[in-house]
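One-letter codes give the sequence; the fold follows as tokens. An example follows:
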Amino acid sequence: MRFHEKSESRLYVGNLDLKITEASLIKMFSPYGKIVSEDFLWHTRGPKRGEPRGFAFIQFSTKEEAKLAKEKMHGRLAIGRPLVVRLASEKYMEEAAQNSSKGVGDTNKTGPAGSTSGLHMSRSAKIAAIKNKLKALEEENQIAKKQKQADNTSSNSSSSSLDHPSCIR
């Protein structure tokens, strides 16, 4: 399998609840095709060492299987959280496009004076990755809020007396 083919059949799965295990992730995605490999990412250092990072990569045997899994699983709730499922190549292309849209001046603003340009690029790439992650988390949060609001409006037709401000003392 060539690299390009491999990247087209590899999925990024994000917004995973920390209770989701590798086995449950494989079980969720296996109906859509043969899973060749999965990379469940864990924190390797710091106070969260050994805890899941909240995302994984799943490699299917064909790009068709990966696309089917993406279509069926993106936005699906898993332990109350909507999954974010993309082709891994789309995620990298998206980050590269956002990084390339940054001005040249942006790299000069980062890093200590006198450091090499390689350090600048590395640091600016890290900053861009953090910004991308924050943006993705904000989008996921908005989806979850809208879903929660929809659930609340359909299930709560009357409010309790505790919600009334005059009852709070």
Observations:
- The chain is about 50% helix and 20% strand.
- The longest helix spans residues 117-155.
- Helices lie at 3-8, 22-29, 63-73, 88-100, 104-108, 117-155.
